[in-house]
């Protein structure tokens, strides 16, 4: 299946006005990017390493992570149990080997974060404080500052980077396009830097490898928990460079995002799943606890189950939201365990100590992304991907709560294990004959509304076809060269691939809900890949793969014993 109209093969941009060189460029500064940079530096301090970030080091999604990081750290817990919960949440679409890597290497990775200076919460006796979130059958979520885990991890990682002066940081830098050598592999990338001094405007960094850790695609939708920088830049850049994207249709909508009104746009405040893990529960307008009977874990069911149940109840009652009742937790508990969420709710006029919190699903996480192997390699030589921009296969059709920080941590460490030993020789960029294009920045709002209404929580064939038609009309008009148009073009590229993938997957699985195909079809347990064909059109293809239903997966999936040659 191929999209109706081509998307730009590269972004229209000025010719580079400056050039610099590095061995490795890491794009992104969250847990995935900074872990990759620190570990690559530790593996080979002689490498010249550049970290480019779209805003400042702390501006990505990591700092917003409230709940925590999941790993088998507590008494009685094991990687096998964590594996099973991950596979159940992934609804038969996980990569079993990737999940095994995640759960077996996860505990050591978290302990390394602690050694780096991350201050997780502890009980008075000194043991790590662990909590439970949706889909987990054990208390295995480590948290910091009650509900400020991401901010604490980000703080510790930034401090470690600042202690490593050999790692050069370029803030306010938007990655424009990959520069490719004659063999199609990495030769560098172009950047647009806002700042003063030598590196300002569009320039080129010639390098031997690029690590994408640029985050997700949340701004594809009108409402998202993602920050404004999450415009799918890394996914679109990789796609234009020839990489494949995988499983884009599996977009997770967090069930409990604070409802701010019908006209609210952009980043929305998240009410962490950990609040339900501590005993809060959902009710409808009549006060009915509607999650009872929906799943064995009721209010702590996997996110897709809860989001669907909320959406159904909203349709049934004609209300734009439901309610989260956490009043019984009490003021002291709220203040100690969830001080950040408490403050945000009060800032928006709701006191959760005495009032119900209005909540509704909103886009939260992209389980799909740039397809990688178990070592972060993409299909483009010299290009690696990690974190939310990547599809390692661990999340399947629906990410298990608090596995995202762990994924970025574990697979960034794995990239660092192999990258120094397989660096390409430096190569000059080959002439780029791909057609350049640009979508006007003012088209963004229409794009987001199209994706929200037709490719959101509820999907069907007619709506997806309408979305693709509307997306195909958005590239008309004169566009002023610059970040708004570049970001909107990236959003259009990723949105087109997402809508095409959702149209191909004619079943309901995990976070992908097709009203016209409401049942799961295990003959379609494989992946949907998307790429750009020679004419610049988005092509998608479903490929078969064995289901990873936990009832059919042995508890000890073989783990790669050594790095492949």
Summarize, please.
This protein has 565 residues and is of the alpha/beta class. Among the domains are: 254-363, Alpha-Beta Complex (Flavocytochrome C3, Chain A, domain 1); 440-534, Up-down Bundle (Methane Monooxygenase Hydroxylase, Chain G, domain 1). Helices cover 29% and strands 18% of the residues.
Folded structure, characterized:
With 565 residues, this protein is of the alpha/beta class. The chain is built from 13 helices and 25 strands. Among the domains are: 110 residues, Succinate dehydrogenase/fumarate reductase flavoprotein, catalytic domain (Flavocytochrome C3, Chain A, domain 1, Alpha-Beta Complex); 95 residues, Fumarate reductase/succinate dehydrogenase flavoprotein-like, C-terminal domain (Methane Monooxygenase Hydroxylase, Chain G, domain 1), CATH 1.20.58.
Label this structure with key terms.
single chain, 565 residues, alpha/beta, Flavocytochrome C3, Chain A, domain 1, five-stranded mixed sheet, 25 strands, disordered C terminus
């Amino acid at each position: 299946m191929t999209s109706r109209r081509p998307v730009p093969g590269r972004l229209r941009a000025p010719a580079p006005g400056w050039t610099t060189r590095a061995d490795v460029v890491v794009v992104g500064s969250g847990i995935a990017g900074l872990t990759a940079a620190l570990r690559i530096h530790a593996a080979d301090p002689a490498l010249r390493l550049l970290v480019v970030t779209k805003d400042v080091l702390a501006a990505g999604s990591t700092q917003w992570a409230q709940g925590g990081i999941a790993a088998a750290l507590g008494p009685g817990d094991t990687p096998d149990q964590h594996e099973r919960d991950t596979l159940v949440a992934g609804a038969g679409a996980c990569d079993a080997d990737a999940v095994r890597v995640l759960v077996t290497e996860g505990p050591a990775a978290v302990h390394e974060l602690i050694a780096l200076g991350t201050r997780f919460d502890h009980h008075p006796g000194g043991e790590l404080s662990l909590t439970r979130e949706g889909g987990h059958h054990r208390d295995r979520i480590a948290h910091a500052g009650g509900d400020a885990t991401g901010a604490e991890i980000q703080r510790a990682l930034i401090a470690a980077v600042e202690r490593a002066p050999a790692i050069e940081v370029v803030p306010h830098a938007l990655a424009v396009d990959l520069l490719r050598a004659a063999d199609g592999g990495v030769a560098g990338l172009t950047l647009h830097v806002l700042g003063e001094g030598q590196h300002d405007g569009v320039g080129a960094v010639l390098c031997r490898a690029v690590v994408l850790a640029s985050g997700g695609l949340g701004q594809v939708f009108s409402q998202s928990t993602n920050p404004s920088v999450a415009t799918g830049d890394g996914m679109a850049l990789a796609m234009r460079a020839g990489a494949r994207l995988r499983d884009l249709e599996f977009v997770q909508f967090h069930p409990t995002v604070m409802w701010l009104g019908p006209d609210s746009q952009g980043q929305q405040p998240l009410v962490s799943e950990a609040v339900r893990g501590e005993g809060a529960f959902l009710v409808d307008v009549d006060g009915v606890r509607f999650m009872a009977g929906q799943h064995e874990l009721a209010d702590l069911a996997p996110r897709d189950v809860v989001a669907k149940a909320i959406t159904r109840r909203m349709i049934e009652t004609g209300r734009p939201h439901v309610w989260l009742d956490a009043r019984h937790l009490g003021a002291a508990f709220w203040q100690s365990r969830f001080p950040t969420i408490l403050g945000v709710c009060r800032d928006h006029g709701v006191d959760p100590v005495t009032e119900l919190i209005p909540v509704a699903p909103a886009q939260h996480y992209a389980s799909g992304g740039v397809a990688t192997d178990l070592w972060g390699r993409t299909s483009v030589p010299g290009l690696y991907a990690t974190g939310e921009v990547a599809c390692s296969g661990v999340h399947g059709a629906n990410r298990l709560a608090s596995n995202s920080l762990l994924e970025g941590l574990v697979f960034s460490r794995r990239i660092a294990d192999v990258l120094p030993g397989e660096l390409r020789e430096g190569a000059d960029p080959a002439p780029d004959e791909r057609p350049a294009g640009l979508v006007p920045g003012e088209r963004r709002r229409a794009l987001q509304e199209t994706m929200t209404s037709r490719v959101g929580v509820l999907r069907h064939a007619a709506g997806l076809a309408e979305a693709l038609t509307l997306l195909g009309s958005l590239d008309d008009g004169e566009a002023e060269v610059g970040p708004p148009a570049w970001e909107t073009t990236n959003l259009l590229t990723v949105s087109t691939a997402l809508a095409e993938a959702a149209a191909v997957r004619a079943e309901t699985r995990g976070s992908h809900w097709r009203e016209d195909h409401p049942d799961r079809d295990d003959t379609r347990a494989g992946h949907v890949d998307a790429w750009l064909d020679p004419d610049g059109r988005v092509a998608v293809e479903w490929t078969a793969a064995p289901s990873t239903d936990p009832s059919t997966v042995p508890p000890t999936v073989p783990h790669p014993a050594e790095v492949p040659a």
